[in-house]
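Q: Structure tokens for this one, please.
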Amino acid sequence: MHRLIPSRYSETGTVLEEVTEDEGMLRDAARLDAATNERIQGEFSGLSGISHFELVYGIPNAQIIRAAFLHPGPFGSRFNDTARGAWYAADTAKTSIAEVAYHKSKRLAAIVVPGLPGERPNEEVSSYDDWQADFHAPFHVPEPAEEYALCLQPEPVPQCYLPSQLLARQLLAQQANGLIYPSVRRKGGLCLACFRPALVYQPRRAKRYEIRLTAAHSGYETEARIIPS
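A: Here is the predicted structure, written as tokens:
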């Protein structure tokens, strides 16, 4: 399964290295950062919806897994609320690109830029890394589809997430591992929402993509290409 994350988050170093002059200053800056950094605090004490005992440590790329569960977002997402995140992935890179491009387009369309056509940004270019992982566990499948139509509404975001977040809380209470469901942004694609950090097996970085969004008559057009990592 494929999960796209911004390339800058794939690096293992810290931006603090660029603004400190020596190891002592770096240590002090790291302590200060830890006092206010929600991700770091979550790694030690968890979030309201996930204990640090559930998080994974000591395996390759464990920090990539932890980040998915410690950054639920201000409104959550389709199958997680603000109490805990989830590992979202798709069956193909094309499906992941479609999912990412949709949300980036929504954010761009909400930006007001006086003087530009439509008063919105003309273009945005960013790079994403394809993080692949394997899954060997049973997952809930929302079938029959007509009974779960409310959970797969495309709009409006984030209001359309309320029914699916309710379903996710019910499944979590039943000790479910997560869901496999049809992609809302790419017809025929499949997506996965994994609730359990320990089930994200062998996360590894694969290809790097440049995703270019260009303003069109209605919305934004998406172009993606592989670039050197």
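A few notes: Strands lie at 2-6, 87-90, 123-134, 178-182, 190-194, 201-215, 220-227. The CA atoms of residues 79 and 165 lie 5 Å apart.
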